[in-house]
Amino acid sequence: MLRVAGLTRRFGEQLALDDVTFDVVPGRMTGFVGANGAGKTTTMRIILGVLAANAGEVRWHGELLTQKTRREFGYMPEERGLYPKMKIRDQLVFFGRLHGLSVGKATERTDKLLSRLGLAERATDVLETLSLGNQQRVQIAVALIHEPIALVLDEPFSGLDPLAVDAMVDLLREEVTPEVPVLFSSHQLDLVERLCDDLVVLSRGKVVAAGPVAELAASQTPTYRLVVDGDAGWLRDLPGLHVRDVAGGTALFDAEDEASAQQILQQAISRGPVLEFGPERVALSDVFREATR
Amino acid sequence: MNDQTLDRPWMLIAEREISTKLRDKTFIGSTLVMLVIVMAAVILPAILAGGNDSDKIAVIDDGGAAVVQRASETQGGEAYEPLRVADQAAAEQAVTNTDATAALLPGPDGYVVVGKDKVDSGVGGALRAAVASVGMEKNAAAVKLTPEQLRAGTQVTEKILEPGPLPGFVADFVNIGLALVFYMTALGFGMMIAQSVVQEKESRVVEILAASVPIRSLLWGKVLGNTVLALTQILVIAIASLIGLTATDQLDILSVVAPVAGWFVVFFVLGFVALAGLWAVAGSLATRQEDLGSTTLPGQMILMIPFFFAVFAGPEAREIASFVPIASSMSMPGRMLTEDVPLWQPLAAIGILLVATVLIIRLGARLYERTLLKTGRRLGYREALALEAG
User: Fold this and answer.
1) Which residue range or ranges hold the ABC-2 type transporter transmembrane domain (chain B) (predicted)?
2) Are residues A46 and A73 in the same domain?
3) Which residues of B touch A71 (CB under 8 A)?
4) What is the C-alpha separation between B38 and B87, in angstroms, rounded?
5) What is the pTM of this model?
6) Domain encompassing residue B118
7) pLDDT tens, per residue, chain A with 293 residues
8) Is residue B34 part of a domain?
9) How large is the ipTM?
10) Cβ contact (<8 Å) for B373 and A51?
């Protein structure tokens, strides 16, 4: 398990990370979300050792993360970058060896990943002649080349079209074995919702929510949707009810529990025909909005 | 995971540095140009000197021809060549229309040397000595003396009390040449090191590199790779010069140069490594290629000032310079070739250089670690020194 504990980092006067603590559990994808400047990249760079923390530590299976262990991590930085003028096959072999693979093993992995990504024919092309999408594929291949024991991906899907995202996700699912913890940050909440098992929400350098996505969603006050034949404006007059939205006959409101929701429904029925009633699925964006409010 | 580079990532970095350069057309091209220049410098003078036609001296009889032959022999080779003509008029004609440099004609008591507007002093002197020598041998034969008896007790040889290993102008040439080799190599490779660092920053690949291996390993790898490349380049040039020297029969120069070659390598490697550390820092202070102009300025100064010192300074100043780190790499090997330098001097200079190299590399590594991942804007040296780790 990868544990981040009490990370604090200052840039001059500004406090970028404030006592950031969370776990990344093996075999689960942990989504790392937060507004721009919340400190996601800073956290990831500290995990990878390219930035020092003012306080706090990163632990791997209970022990302080060492340079040697870190070398077996896979990393996709926010600012993509490889050697533009190096052939992609040479490049992947080089990074494989840099992560500690033998020449033979690195070559084997390179050829496997290149053909998996459909880039086998471009193996001897230099990186900069590839399209940006293909360059991004090579970048993810670099992160995966050494069969990493943990993956840290900073905005891995940004700039990719939906098909490319699917291909990338398939690759990740294939390559990432159950004992590998994966942390990835993203702005695309729908994507995070689709892919992630766990979620860490960061706001202004602080962790404001963390845990399994399902639990986080369940902990929200449930929202109900009511559609009546007529005007639903009367809901606003009910004391103690938090109404999210009313538009004509359609209303969204929060209910303390199932029972109080049913009471509202009865009131509605007594006022006229009810066309629709039910709990509204909690979107991750609501969790996020709630947590960062 | 049992690869030997596992615990020595700098070897891998060095390897990449070397293989990239060896595929770089600009690098190969500039090495070839350098080779051509060196070959030309070695071979051309020999060809020019050898291709010089011998001076023709017009003669009208066997006696004259024998004198010219003798003059040529004393000069050691084919300096003069007799040009046989029919009579005095033809000989004077040959001199006038410059078919011959001079004419040697029988005179009232010996010979007359005829020139066009003047008699070249070299030619005149050589002919005069040859006439005397041939004539006296003939006179000696008349009184039954062998040439050896004739010359007994008249030989003058020279003895130099403080001989320099090489004659004056050759010494200057060698001093400048050796300083130039170091200067050019250190500057050329220095710029390449700085560029390769800034390229890694520009392309952001440095983020992945730094996440995989310690930043110091990146520095060592670069320094090692480029030192190997630089030494190889010098070796190739040295071999080319050897071939050139062999081809033009100048191998005797080698006996003078060879003993100093080992010293040169030691001074070269230490000086080069110290500078390489600085050049890498120059690269890591920059964020774009354009920044290199200003960040490499101190490196260029550290090279240029000692270079001009090594080339233009007087002997005393040069002696001092040959102990100053970096400057010593350019001055000491040259001094050892051209002067008699007591053994303690190069040893002391190497000691000083070694200490300086260790200090510079340490400082360089510190600056490199602190600035390599700063991609926001170009940093100054003072600013970098004040930076905290991380």
Assistant:
1) 26-364
2) yes
3) 212-213
4) 49
5) 0.76
6) 55-151
7) 899 999 999 988 889 999 999 999 998 899 999 888 889 999 999 999 989 899 999 999 999 999 889 999 999 998 888 999 999 999 999 999 999 899 999 999 999 999 998 899 999 999 999 998 889 889 999 999 999 999 999 999 888 888 888 888 888 888 888 889 999 998 888 888 888 889 999 988 999 888 888 787 777 777 888 898 888 888 888 877 888 888 888 888 887 778 888 888 888 898 888 998 888 766 667 777 776 66
8) yes
9) 0.81
10) yes
